[in-house]
Design a protein that fits this description.
heterodimer, A: 296 residues, alpha/beta, 4-stranded parallel sheet, B: 652 residues, 5-stranded parallel sheet, 24% strand, binds flavin-adenine dinucleotide, binds iron/sulfur cluster
Chain lengths: 296, 652
């Protein structure tokens, strides 16, 4: 693979904790595909949800610090698997285009950020820089017989003028990746709906309702599993699935994968490497069915 | 030259920020000026009389009026001069309203700038020459392009006024969108009962020649003498023989053709007459679906046609018509809503457009007037209407209001209750725009008598759940989210300029706005004229318009044509370019820059020279700045006149 596939990698806090399997599978898949990810040395938290609700310049400074570190690495693109980190990094970039904001933020930093770094999601570089063709060619164990729906969540592509990737109302990047790797991808009408995000803590009822609806519709269209790209979405749907069932009286039993986990399987890697054992809803049946011809 | 200067107050419009008396005072010192005064309203009757008196009393040869824009009153004052016995081109106007008093508040600076503008006008006037218009003959025939209700009205009014009318329609029948409608607001009377007889009148009127299934290929000439090349598209049916009996449609084995008249609900036979009341009622073969034309098999229609009208080898035909005026009435098209991913982007069969619903409601439509869900044919109970889909939405580049959707949505909610008494309509709206006569009453009736539930807010998403569609939106009056379980969703899609409108505008040399709607000559005072003399507008081609407004404009355009043709000859504007034959070196640069094709090459004693075709030249002056020899000069704006102005303003 060409040299251009080298990026500064920003795992984000959840990648080192609650969504470890996302981080593991992302690193493994990228390595397998010849994408070089170098961790940003001494990276810090992007501020997650709370920071930007409190102060835009402080929250931008948290992200700008990380971007400045990338500048020092002599790399021009930072990638992250987490859409929330992505939003913060990109918003900081966007806000700092205004001189006034740039000055304010740089005053807060030890070393000023000069604005030479662009941020992308791992999803975006897989589709745009590597390409679907390469994915198809690298597939060893096609995801045949697997009926899935891709769930992007509400912030991966929004707001469009900041995120600048795919369609804000009807994204297709994950759909296309999964299709290229042999899965049957069903059209999922709620692919950009909100799962309730961090309301899981103060207002559990909101998450029960919103995530419940996501699972209802997924069951309605008859998926074997949902595929996500966001640690928080995955957690609400997976970890809270039993809570949702008891709150709404539903009987969902839908495994919730990170798309990188399924990619890893298709690339011939083992389940352990993909952190499959870290999922709450057991993916056993679904994983066993992959590649088996449908019996009539 | 003895010049008189009149500085207008325009009430407080000018006087508020310009010391007009001081401007007049200063003007008295300018070369040639023998009289200067300020005046309250120069354009009023006493104002004009004052100018005439001064011309007589001071034996003036020319007049400067410093006032508003020449667009508004130049013709007024030119007439004033003529009434006083002067040539109308010995007049100059200085715009001290739009160019001065309306844009700055500093009275001293404004007064100084006004003085400069008057100085320039006077300096130019000294170099003005009397010019006289020429007269030329015109062809008193009119062409109407587009046979919707606006075009039909214009055609009938012109024909009733005694003119020969040529009506060109691109589809195989006239009637436009109105022919597709079921009932019309605010009277809820049957659309085809109103329109049908008018369409028959067109067919039967001795003065109207109808070219259906035809398009404008090329337009040449100028006001009074246009030459229009028309393409009569191959229909593969000899229309002189076809009686419209429709046997061919019944027997045609290929019944999978697109059905634009029914808005693509259902399919049509490959040979088709779009609807029973079509005018002309003639069959057209869709070559993409005709088995005979595609694969040289079948040929059934030729066998069954009692009049032997079928001709599989027919070709496009070109004819030329000569007319003196053209009315563009090409109407509108509907916004392609499938860009709205949040509404399913065209993937959910039970999300349909307002026009599709209109066809569904129509007794002659694809479901014979029964409201059925496209997915399973069931009768819907909860019908949700969403307004402003592709209107008032910057994100899809449609910031404007489409005008009639509020009204037709109210109509459709009323008709829904009529068709299905136990149904419930929900209307998501932004605000209700119903300003016409009996319009507000009509939308209230929809709510109060027919129980349509109006919810103010945009819909953020539609998604299928089981066999229902969940419509989620905001209720901005309650400040809450709402979700409605719908059986059928009808999108009030917005209005766009007709497909191909800008191409036609270029052929007609008329202007169009950012969105492809044709531009009127003046938004208030010339609503049906264009910037090109002899070309008029009617109906929704100028902007979204409902039927009453389209018809009114059709009549207005006809009145303008009749007024123009009531004269024996047309006057040409003498402020056009003239070639100095001695200086012209025949390089042809002017020919290639003239946007109107007004300059031609002529042979002058064996030498190539340029010559201006007087009737086509619009006086834009592009050629004068192009000509390397200064050989081509725009009368009334010669190099000398413009240089005199420049010298006047740069005199230090
Ligand atoms: C769903 C719906 C319901 C409506 N209901 C009502 C109602 O109840 N009451 C009401 O007052 N209004 C209603 N309207 C509005 C109504 O349709 C318009 O006001 C009316 O059709 C405008 O007439 P028009 O002649 O200007 O344009 P059109 O009806 O669009 O006619 C234009 C004609 O020009 C032809 N044409 C286009 N381009 C060319 C070309 N280049 N060369 C030759 N021919 C060309 C077209 O084929 C067409 O025949 C409704 C509109 C919609 C969408
Ligand atoms: S083509 Fe022949 S069969 Fe068809 S409508 Fe015309 S006359 Fe009748
Ligand atoms: S003035 Fe304009 S329209 Fe007239 S000949 Fe010159 S370029 Fe053509």
């Amino acid at each position: 693979m060409s040299d251009s596939l080298t990026y500064a990698y920003y795992p984000g806090c959840s990648g080192t904790g609650t969504s470890m399997e996302y981080d593991m599978s992302t690193r493994a898949v990228c390595e397998k595909l010849g994408i070089r990810l170098t961790d940003i040395p001494d990276w810090s938290c992007c501020g997650s949800t709370p920071a930007h609700t409190v102060d835009h310049s402080l929250s931008s400074a948290l992200s700008a610090r990380n971007l400045q570190l990338v500048e020092k690495m002599d790399l021009d693109t930072a990638v992250t698997p987490c859409p929330s980190c992505l939003t913060n990094l990109k918003s900081a970039e966007h806000r700092m285009k205004k001189d006034e904001m740039r000055e304010k933020v740089n005053k807060l930093l030890d070393n000023p950020y000069n604005g030479g770094v662009s941020t992308k999601s791992v999803l975006q570089i897989l589709v745009e820089d590597l390409g679907l063709k390469a994915l198809k060619e690298s597939t060893i164990k096609p995801l045949k017989g697997l009926k899935v729906a891709a769930y992007y969540g509400c912030i991966m592509n929004r707001p469009p003028e900041v995120m600048n990737f795919d369609d804000p109302e009807h994204p297709m990047a994950m759909d296309n990746i999964l299709k290229a790797m042999g899965a049957t991808v069903l059209p999922y009408p709620l692919k950009v709906e909100c799962c309730g995000a961090s309301f899981g803590i103060p207002r559990k009822d909101v998450v029960m309702r919103l995530s419940g609806k996501l699972l209802d519709v997924a069951d309605d269209i008859g998926v074997d599993a949902l595929v996500t790209a966001c640690p928080l979405c995955q957690m609400n749907l997976d970890l809270r699935q039993t809570q949702i069932n008891s709150a709404t009286g539903a009987k969902h039993n839908i495994p919730i994968f990170y798309y990188t986990q399924l990619m890893g399987i298709a690339l011939g890697m083992n389940e352990k490497e993909m952190g499959m054992d870290k999922l709450c809803v057991s993916p056993r049946k679904v994983l066993d069915a992959i590649g088996k011809e449908e019996k009539k | 030259m003895k010049i008189g200067v009149f500085v207008c107050h325009c009430g407080t419009n000018i006087e508020g920020t310009v010391d007009t008396a001081a401007v007049a005072e200063a003007a008295r010192e300018f070369p040639g000026v023998v009289f200067a005064t300020d005046t309250m309203y120069a354009c009023s009757e006493p104002g004009q009389d004052g100018i005439i008196e001064a011309i007589k009393e001071h034996k003036l040869d020319g007049v400067v009026v410093a006032s508003c824009t020449p667009r508004m009153h130049e013709p007024t004052f030119r007439k004033t001069l003529e009434r006083a016995g002067l040539n109308r081109y010995l007049f100059e106007m200085a715009n001290i309203r739009e160019h001065v008093s309306w844009i700055g508040k500093d009275r001293e600076a404004n007064t100084n700038k006004s003085v400069d503008l008057v100085r320039m006008a006077a300096a130019k006037l000294i170099n003005n020459k009397p010019l006289n218009a020429k007269f030329f003959d015109m062809n008193k025939k009119v062409m109407i392009v587009g046979g919707g209700v606006a075009g039909i009205q214009a055609a009938l009014d012109c024909a009733d006024g005694g003119l020969d009318v040529i009506l060109v329609e691109k589809t195989s029948s006239i009637g436009g969108k109105m022919a597709k409608l079921d009932k019309t607001f605010p009277t809820v009377d049957c659309s085809s009962c109103v329109l049908g007889p008018r369409m028959v009148d067109v067919a039967q009127h001795p003065n109207i020649t109808l070219h259906a299934y035809s398009e404008i290929e090329e337009v040449n000439g100028y006001v009074g003498n246009f030459e229009v090349k028309i393409k009569k598209k191959a229909s593969y049916v000899n229309w002189d023989l076809c009686t419209g009996c429709g046997i061919c449609m019944e027997k045609c084995p290929s019944k999978k053709a697109d059905n634009p008249f029914d808005e693509y609900l259902g399919k049509a036979p490959a040979i088709n007459i779009p609807f029973p009341q079509a005018i002309p009622k003639k069959a057209v073969i869709d070559p993409d679906f005709c088995i005979k034309i595609k694969r040289d098999k079948c040929g059934v229609c030729a066998k069954v046609c009692p009049s032997e009208a079928i001709d599989y080898t027919q070709q496009d035909e070109f004819i030329t018509e000569e007319v003196g005026a053209v009315v563009a009435a090409t109407g509108y098209d509907l916004f392609d809503w499938t860009v709205y991913g949040e509404y399913g982007g065209g993937q959910y069969p039970d999300v349909i457009t307002s026009m599709q619903y209109e066809r569904m409601l129509s007794a002659s439509g694809p479901s014979e007037g029964h409201v059925k869900r496209p997915s399973d044919g069931k009768e819907p109970k909860n019908v949700v209407f969403i307004q402003c889909v592709g209107s008032r939405d910057k994100s899809v580049d449609r910031p404007y209001c489409s005008g009639f959707c509020c009204m037709y949505t109210a109509k459709q909610s009323i008709l829904t209750k009529d068709h299905i008494p136990d149904s419930q309509s929900y209307v998501f709206y932004m605000d209700i725009r119903a300003p016409g006569k009996m319009y507000d009453e009509f939308t209230r009736r929809a709510m109060e008598e027919y129980g349509a539930k109006y919810i103010r807010g945009r819909v953020s998403m539609i998604y299928p759940k089981g066999d229902k569609l969940i419509v989620r939106g905001a209720d901005t009056l309650m400040g809450d989210q709402v979700e409605v379980d719908a059986d059928l969703v009808v999108l009030a899609v917005g209005v766009e300029a007709a497909n191909g409108a800008t191409d036609l505008a270029k052929k007609l040399r008329i202007s169009y706005d950012n969105y492809g709607f044709f531009m009127e000559g003046h938004p208030k005072l010339k609503p049906v004229e264009t910037n090109t003399a002899g070309v008029f507008l009617a109906g929704a081609c100028q902007g979204p318009k409902d039927i009453p407004a389209s018809v009114a404009q059709g009549s207005a355009a006809a009145a303008k044509v009749l007024a123009m043709f009531s004269k024996d000859q047309l006057e040409s504007d003498p402020a056009i370019s003239v070639v100095d034959i001695k200086r012209c070196i025949g390089c042809g640069k002017c020919i290639s820059t003239c946007p109107f094709g007004a300059i031609k090459e002529v042979d002058f004693r064996g030498m190539v020279k340029a010559e201006v075709i007087e009737t086509i030249c619009q006086g834009c002056g592009i050629c004068t700045s192009t000509c390397p020899q200064g050989a081509i000069q725009l009368q009334h704006f010669t190099d000398n006149q413009i240089l005199a102005e420049v010298n006047a303003v740069c005199r230090f």
